[in-house]
C-alpha cells in the first residue's frame, strides 16, 4: 500500500460519457494552443479578477476556460500561501470564562443538481459522514439551485459551455438532506449566482418549497432579503447571505431587494448593506453573526489577494464573526483573523473559510471532489459579571466525493479515516485510489494549515 502522500498527475477535468471525453479533448487542444501565447501569464490568477459573467470581456472568457479545461493557475504569491499555511486555528477562551451554554453548527458547501445524483446512485452516499454532519444543533449549506417542483428539473451539463439555468426536484432535495436518514438542514443560503435561474417566480417557489420542508432560507425573499435568526441553548445566531453575481441575469428596480446581491468580489466595494444587516441583527440580540459570502475565484487553490482583503474589510467595517465562502467549487483554506469589532469596540477573532467547495455535486473538475465539512462550536458564558459569546472550536472532516467510474454510484469517503487505516475501500478501482491519493495531497498541501492535528474530526 502506497502512503497517502503519493501524488499522481490527474488531469484537471475528467468527463464520463464518450461525447464528453471527445469534447474535452477538443477543448484541451484549443486551450493548449492558446497556452503557447498566454500560458505563462495565466499560470498566475489575474489581479482583481471579478469572475462575473455579466462583465466578462472575451479575454476573460478565454482565461476562465483555460483554467477549467486545461490548467488551473499554479502560482500564488508566496506571502499569501505562507499566511494560510501558518494559520493557528485554535480559539482559546478568555481567562476566567465560565461556560453556560454551547451550540454546534455543521457547515457544508454547494448543493448542485448533477444528473448522476439520483436515488439509485446515492443509497450509501452518507454512510461515512451523515451521523457526524447532521448531528449538530444547526446544519447549514448553500443551495445553489432553485427548487421549483412545478417545473422540469434542469441539471448541470457535463461540459459547461454556455449559460446554465438550474432547477432541482423534491427527490434531489431529499438526497441533499441525507436521504431521509437524518434531520436534514436547519438553514440554507439561497443567495448565489444561480438564484435567478428560474426567474423571480422561481425565488418564490423555492422559498415556499423550503418552508414546507421546515428549512429557513437566507439571502432571498419575496420582498426584502435580510438576516435570519436561530436561537439554540440561549445563544442567538444570526445568518446573512450575499452573492457577488447573478451570472448574466439582472433584477429590475422593483425586484432588486429580493436577492442580497452585492459585487463583493470587486476592490473597493461599498459594504454598507452587509454592515446594516449585521448591525440590525446585533441590535436584535444576535450573539454571533455568520455571513455566507458567495464570491471569490473558481478553480484555484488559494483565494486571490483582493478577496482576502475584502473579507478582512467585512470584519473591520461590518463586525461579522464568521465568514463562510462559497462559489470557487474547489476548497480554499481557512483563517483566524484578529480585528476590532466596529459595533462593540472589542478586540476579537473572526473565522473564515474562503471556499467550502462543491458538496452534494459532481463536477468533472477533479479538485472539486475534495470536500471540507466543518463543525463549529460556539459557547456563551460569563467572565465575572460580563456575558461573552465566542467561537470555541472548529473541526474539519476531509471528504472524498467518490464516484464510480461508470457513473452509477456516489459516496462520501472520509479520507483521513482511510489514511489512518492505510487502506482504501474494497469498492475502489485503481483509478479511484489514485484520485483519492491526489486529493489527499491537495488537501494537505493547499487546504490544511501546517498545524492541523487538532482540527481533524
TrEMBL record:
Gene3D superfamilies: 3.60.21.10. Residues 104-363 form the Capsule synthesis protein CapA domain. Belongs to the CapA family. SMART domains: PGA_cap. This is CapA family protein. Pfam families: PGA_cap (PF09587).
